[in-house]
Amino acid sequence: MLLTTNEPYLVVDPLYLDKMRNQLSLAVAGRWRDLQEQAFPFGENSFAIHIPKRDIVSIEMIENMEIEYQCSDFSCFECDTGSIVFVRIDCLVSVIERFSYDEVFSKTRETMDSMNAYLAEVFKGLPTNSIAMLLSQGVYGKTDFVGSGCYRIKE
Hints:
Low-confidence stretches: none
Number of strands: 7
Largest sheet: 4 strands, antiparallel
Order of helices and strands: EHHHEEEEHHHEE
Strand order of the largest sheet: 2-1-5-6
Oligomer: single chain
Helix content: 25-40%
Number of domains: 1
Number of helices: 6
Mean pLDDT: 86
């Protein structure tokens, strides 16, 4: 996946974007701790903030923390669905307003091409490299990103 280097991204399970919709003002203000507490009162690591040093991120860079880890610096994130999105912070409001987890993943039941077409339409007009998605290969894949768990990005 291509990202823009030195630009901050929110890294989050796409299911959680729907939970952020009612707290957009906190995201706009960059009040990440408040967003964490208000939108996710039962989770400590619901999202991470990542500033890529390279323009490519791959599934091999997602490291399983093995145990539920508490990262006070927003370097770790939890995942429930086996998928994560990278959303450039300056595009976060647009993405949250347009994105529907249920809609995206009803498309994956059809085909990956169907999901990609839907995402292309939803995010038309956003800057290049403003959003990217990774899907887990599952427990039989050859990476640490197996699905649900606590993860961080290693560069």
